[in-house]
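Known limitations

Files may contain more than one protein. Parsers should not assume a single record per file. Below, a two-record file is shown to illustrate correct handling: read the sequence, read the token line, then continue until end of file.
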Amino acid sequence: MRFTGWQKCPLAFSGIRITVIDIAASPRAPLGIEGKAKIGKMLLNFTMNTKVSPSSDPTRSLSLRKRCAEKGVGIDQCIASSVVHEFGHVLGLSHEQNRPDDPSSELCHRNDPETVIFTGDIGQFVYHTWGNTKFTPYDPNSVMNYCRIPYYGNTKLSLMDQVAVKVYYGNIPGFSTPGGWNGLVGRGIRTMRIPKLMINNLPYNAVLTESGIDSNHDGKYDNVYTLTITYNPSVQSISPVTLVGSATKVGSVINIKPGSKISFPLFKYSSAGKVVRVGHASVIKRADGWWIFDSYKYFYDIH
């Protein structure tokens, strides 16, 4: 996410347009691309003096400024935490307490309505508040959870917040398995795309590609891979990986010695174009030149 320019948005601007206003509906943000190019749908509040819209929660009859003050949180920190939360919505994160696997029945765990319609001087907008994918286990510490303790003034992303954002936006290694982990013959070749592989302090794009060989004639491809690398000095990734071992360059060819290893602290596993798991893994080069997965473990299944 990049914040560029704080001047008035041009009419043709197609990004997120921010309206700063102190009204009952503010702060409020659309989910993901629902706010793209919309004037008045992304609302931030830098004074927080207005009471929020009517609610069954008695604490929400106070302005955000007063609610923060009751918790000993200053106005600047109160604004900062609200901005972090609202931009979580812009990135596609919905309220954590709305999840059906939320274990609590506390007042703050009440479900938001699926849609909220706001009508005011700046127009009428429909906000969708429910997500459609459970990306991690229920997270009581998420910045998107109203029941987080402390909630007001807390700008720190939880570990699961960080994983979710990194997986979707961080250009991390991605394993694609058209035929499932066991690689059934006829269902496509499995690949691990590595956006940034550091070899001798130089950055490369790399791809591990399954052999496509069924040496046991059991209907499953052998779990061995080739590694293709391309030098790319401009590649960006928040989760670069480093070759541990020995590599020499002869002309434009990189020779990696057997026993060399690549570890992936974080990778996403996709099936049919959808991310379904998150985990970590490592591969090692055998003496016969093939690369094999010598370890892998999944953190989360995504539904």
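...continuing to the second record:
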Amino acid sequence: MTVILEAPRLVLRHQVLSDLDDLWALYQNPNITKYIPDAPRSREEAQEELEWHMHGHPRHPELGLWATIHKETGKFIGRCGLLPWTIEEQYDVEVAYTLAQDFWGQGLATEVAQAILQYGFETLNLSRLICLIDPANIASQRVAEKMGMKWERTVDGWEGDNIPFYIYSIHKYQVALEFHKITQRRGRAGRKQRQQPECNLKKRSLCSDPLFILRPKASCSRPYHPSFACLSESSHAWLPHQVSVESTHFPLPAHQSGRRAAWSAKLP
């Protein structure tokens, strides 16, 4: 079993055949499937989905739906991951998350979604991520917002199914901007209590460069996150690992087609 990533309370790994009972139990809950129009309706369909994603998405092995394991209990509690789509001629990658109802209300959906988003941006170097959400699924919309995503638009259906859904989205450079805002807010709060330590500043004005950010000295007490620790002197902004300004401003090329029922597509 290949482990893809870990969160504080969860492990995401490739699915295996022994997960079938737990996966089918997940899809037998109507409170879950009412927000998944293409959810498996039989054990056979659940097995088809599992086999489709056992080694990652067949067309994009780095993506797929992964078994989500609760560290404390060792239980299979959901399937979460990244799925490729082409929606209205634009290629996108979705952050997908579905957890068993017994584990709702514990912050686990937000935890796994944030871990997947970080994996997509930092490990896979994707420039943009989305969520596809039923308009009635308020809880899922809140998870997307906690990831930093914003509502982008409503799509009236996919491939003629006439089932509307919301698209929430975020670009990689927005993560750096959000971290910059948090740094500024905490810095202002700290200055009310004590003298701030000296910081190194880039030679651009904050007004002229929207991606301008402070780079603290080692002795600076301003919050610092290792995910954003790769500013080079020639770079345009302080961004996560492997980020270029060019890659953050444009979506990925639309060279592959996605499916709303990605697991059920057949390879040519």
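Parsers that stop after the first record will miss the second one. For reference, the second record is described as follows. The CA atoms of residues 84 and 93 lie 5 Å apart.
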